[in-house]
Amino acid sequence: MKSINLVFFSLFSILLGAQQKQHSAFDAISKSDLVSLATYLDDNVELCFNENVNFLDKEAAIKELKSFLEKNPTKSLTPIHNGASKGKGSHFYIGMLNSTNGKSFRVYLYTELIGGKAVIKELRINKEGN
Questions:
Q1: DSSP helix/strand/coil, 43
Q2: What is the Rg, in whole angstroms, of the alpha carbon atoms belonging to the chain?
Q3: pLDDT-based confidence at 101, cuts 50/70/90?
Q4: pTM over 0.85
Q5: Domains of the chain by residue range
Q6: How far from 88 is each of 3, 17, 43, 92, CA to CA, in Å?
Q7: Does domain 20-128 have CATH number 2.30.29.30?
């Protein structure tokens, strides 16, 4: 019985450790909380929708994201992968956004550590499937 409990506890611990870390911006996007999202963005952001890249200031990026979220309200945003540079000065986060209109999007965030704060330098949202 002890060995069964040990195996169960070990598997449970492995599953908890395997959960993907999520950037707080994912929470803001999933709630369409653009005020919170703006606090994570750098003053100038590379914003990309379906491989259409724009370099925008924070205010213009928030307007674009607002328009996107109004057309594609978030049903869920699930983290699927993340990683860091060797020196931990930059990170990336990838998640899958499912909208209430049935569309799915891959969300990619790239952050850099600036002044002790991780700021979003790049945000990509690409439609998945058809």
A1: strand
A2: 17
A3: very high
A4: no
A5: 20-128
A6: 39, 19, 21, 11
A7: no
